[in-house]
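re: that chain from earlier
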Amino acid sequence: MGNKAVFLDRDGTIAPDVHYCSRAEDFNLFSFTAKAIRMLNNHGFKVIIITNQSGIARGYFTEEILSTIHEKMIRELTQKGATLDGVYYCPHHPDEHCVCRKPNTDLVRRAVLDHDIEIEQSFVIGDSPVDIGMGKRVGCKTILLWNASSPIELKTINSDFIVPNLLAAVFTILRISLASDSQ
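^ sequence. v structure.
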C-alpha cells in the first residue's frame, strides 16, 4: 500500500499571493502554515507543493530565482519543524498548452511515482478552480480555500470541501482520516 499525501498549491494557500513573486524577500508563509504542515507530517501524510509558475515563461523571474524562493520556503518550514516531501512546478506560459500546468495532472502523476502515493487516500488543497480541477482529474479528495473576499463564484466549483484557510483544511483532513481509520 502506498503513502497518503496532501498536494498543496503555493500562492494563496501556504503564502499570500504576491503577483508574480520574483524576490525571496517578498515571499512569506502564512502564520499557520508551518503548524498545518507539521500536523500533516505527524499524521503520516506526504506533503507536496504543486504550483504553476508562468512568471518564468513570461520573463518576470528565472528558475534560479524560483529556486531561491523555494529554498527560503523550505528553510522557514524546517526551522518550525515542518517538512515538505516535494516541490513540483510548471514554468510554462498558459498558451503553451503543456501537460504539467494545472489543471493538467502531469506534476501530480510525477509526484505519485516519486513518492509511492495512494491517490485515493490523498487530498488536493488550493484556492482556485485549477487546483480543484487537477484534484478531480487525478481522483483526490479536494478542498477549496475560500472566504467572502475570494474572487471566485462558489457555484462554479465542485470541491468536496470548502474551508477558509489551510489550517481549517488540515483539521478537515484529519477528521476524515481518523474516521476512516476507525472503520
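The mean pLDDT is 95.
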